[in-house]
Amino acid sequence: MINNRWSKNSIKIKVDGDYYKVEGMLPHRDKNNRHIRVRNRFTTRAEAEAHLQAMQDKGELYILQGMNRVSHLTAKEEADAIAAIKHLQAHGRDISIYEMAVSYVANISTERPMVKIEEAGKSFTETLKFQENSERHKKAVKRVLLNLAKAFPRKVVSSFKKVEIERWMEKFTEGLSATSFNLCYLHLHVFFNYCYNQEWVEDNPVSRIQKRRVERKRVEILEPEQVEKLFEIALNIKDGAMVPYLVFSIFCGMRNEEIMRLDWKDVNLSKGVIRVDGKNYRERPVIIPENARVWLTRYAKSEGRVRHSNHVKYWDVLKACAGYRVHSARMGSVCFFGYDEECKNASDKSRPSFPKNVMRHTGITFMVQKLDQNVDKTAIWAGNSPQIIHRHYLAVRGLDDEMTEKFYSILPPEETIFEKSA
Fold first, then answer.
1. Region for residue 35 given its phi and psi (left: phi exceeds 0; alpha: psi -120 to 50; beta: otherwise)
2. Per the confidence metrics, is the pTM higher than 0.70?
């Protein structure tokens, strides 16, 4: 007769020095009607736990088989049912086997296309929304997708798991900063969102990956004297070709990508406003500060892109002349416009790098002071949220009213205005 009082707790793991013992009794009986003992020794806890689970399952199955009840299930089917229930419990799913079966049938009833990573990447990068990004952004995304495809050639996108993507990201960004890992996360998250919208994947596996914690840096701005120096150099580079870029970046606080998309038709100097094609394709009006209007009066055109066709080369020269570090490879075939001495050691490591987004940060910081610290008006002007303005731009180190007044007093030299009048 089977002892129905037997439970899986009748078998346990015990530690014996450097070994793990699985000991206890099974509900089974030998030829002498004695319970069969379990006594096994393992060197690792994982092996012991696996054996413990197997013995407990064996005992429970024996109890089920011996109970006097009617069932159309075979012993194998009951064992599968037990395993299914335990699997659901282990993953915190409080549903019955029937509910699980219904959900499974519903999911497999709609077959997903077997789209491979190479095909999905090509489709994603050919979308209009992707093409509207900056060249730098597009290059970065394509690099991530290309390397992912190399690591998992011909893999169907619906078969990607969170664990394998996360391991690949760690290897791909090995030795780089947490910011690099988070950028890789961002690119892949957008890509798999696209795949989800195309119904190629059941969900976005990247959304379950934890981003790295990045130390938050304080906003860094240019002082009025530094701004004056940049404009002084820009006036001598290709007839002031870089002046509009500086005006829109520094005095109007526009993003680099926004300036790339900006056409002179969207700049209304008579009303002092710019129609900006902003972040996430949201348009916004940007009021032009008075000193910026003075600068733009000389360089404004009736139509065409604001950013110069040789912007990258001229921008490198400008930074080098201002004392910032520029890689020597970028200075090979560039005219220095008389600044040969200043550009001579442009790649010297003792030179500082030009701070990222510092010109936009400068414009927003001084604008919020000009608007009497009105974060709502500044947020509309800058294309940010009021929370971002309040958190980053209200208490910049070293800022005072005198600096703000001097910033908005930066104007072209008198001879430049005289030439325009003439």
1. beta
2. no
